[in-house]
Amino acid sequence: MDVLGFEKLIYHYEKIEKIKQGRPQFPVNLTVSLGNYCNHGCRWCTVYAVQEEDVRHADFDRFISFFTRAKQRGLKAISYVGNGEPTAYPRFRELINQVGELGIEQSMFTNGHLLDRYRDEILQYFTFARISLDAGSTPVHDAMHQVNGHFDKIVNNLADIIERRQDKLPTIGIQYATHQDNLSDLHRCAGVASRIGADYLSVKPVFNWGGGANQARIDPNRLSNDDIEPEVIRARNDFESPDFKIFYRPFQIDSVAKDRNVFEYDRCVAGFFNLNMYETGILTCCSPHKVEVGTIDADLGELEQRIMEATSNLDLSKCPPSCRYHPMNHLVDTVLNPERGREFHKNFL
Ligand SMILES: C[S@@+](CC[C@H](N)C(=O)[O-])C[C@H]1O[C@@H](n2cnc3c(N)ncnc32)[C@H](O)[C@@H]1O
């Protein structure tokens, strides 16, 4: 089992049982957008168009009120990701303190530049932080993220947190969205990550969807596994250790190269495990399809009902190739449809 895969579903087997029985339930995780402002301008960013709109920030009190109600209903964890940079939210410190006091686990995707402002709270309350670094040097980082010399500060911020943490918590992971314009820096990034004591490097493709790499800001990603794998193997040979792992899932690159989902399943169940919450207060059970199930002021029982209905009516042929839930849906599908167990020799354990 690893932190990025979906084998961890086994910890939530009772939720799969409820899906099987057609019973409503509240998701374990919330993916939260605190605003559409970002201090970086990644050339492939799928939400760049949203960031071009007038700046919007989450309504602090409404958000805390929803988190409080959701916690009582079964919410366990919050991941700050969203349309902008979570650490640029003006009341971020206050928010993560209050969520920590509610006893909800926290994590974030961040570009890492402002992490020093919240170091102590991150050390106290966060389970993990994943830093979207995408480079191993200042020139490549400047060019990919459209910034001016942030790379060294980000690396120092991470090194500081890693040095001060106890029992290897929070987990510090570095993400590398791979494109022909930054592939040459991947090995250097792995070297930096292992040197500062990060826990892992996750190598992913740049997706060609959602207004990301389809825009004039960057060419579509043309990399295949044949291009990326040799670099991953070189980095693994030189830097991987029991304390530093390099995650690379060829199916993700394959999906982007083939421009389709490569996993079989007939129902998306992501909404039973994760809900997306936007700075506008809108909740969706699927972010690519933007399937709204209500707002943060909604009655939670009604919300659970709408998640059930929405997850039964999704047009799976329109799902983006890169959706992170394809492998999870495939896994749950094998449980929900026992006849498929034959194909997987289910009794030969
Ligand atoms: C939109 S950002 C918001 C959170 C934060 N600002 C950050 O940099 O991580 C969320 C994640 O989406 C990733 N992302 C955005 N557009 C992408 C694309 N076209 N392909 C792959 N990853 C993308 C970013 O690299 C980042 O890891």
Major sheet: order of its strands?
Answer: 7-6-5-4-3-2-1-8-9-10
Strand count: 10
What ions, cofactors and ligands are bound?
S-adenosylmethionine
Class of secondary structure makeup = alpha/beta
Strand content: 15-25%
Question: What does this entry look like structurally?
Answer:
The protein is α/β, with parallel strands linked by helices. The chain contains twelve helices and ten strands. The chain has a ten-stranded mixed sheet. Strand 8 and strand 9 (about 280-285) form a beta hairpin. The longest helix is centred in the middle third of the chain and has 15 residues, at about 225-240. It is globular and about 50 Å long. The mean pLDDT is about 95.
Give keywords.
binds S-adenosylmethionine; 10-stranded mixed beta sheet; alpha/beta; 349 residues; 12 helices; globular; 10 strands
What is the secondary structure topology, with strand pairs?
Blueprint: H1 13-21, E1 29-32, H2 48-51, H3 60-73, E2 77-80, H4 92-101, E3 105-110, H5 119-125, E4 126-132, H6 138-145, H7 151-164, E5 171-178, H8 186-196, E6 200-205, H9 225-239, E7 245-248, H10 250-258, E8 274-277, E9 282-286, E10 291-295, H11 300-312, H12 326-336
Parallel strand pairs: 1-2, 1-8, 2-3, 3-4, 4-5, 5-6, 6-7
Antiparallel strand pairs: 8-9, 9-10
Helix pairs in contact: 4-5, 8-9
Bound molecules: S-adenosylmethionine (SAM).
Residues 38, 42, 44-47, 81-82, 85, 109-111, 132, 175, 177, 206-207, 212-213 line the site of S-adenosylmethionine.
Précis, in short:
Helix content is 36%, strand content 15%. It has 349 residues and is α/β, with parallel strands linked by helices.
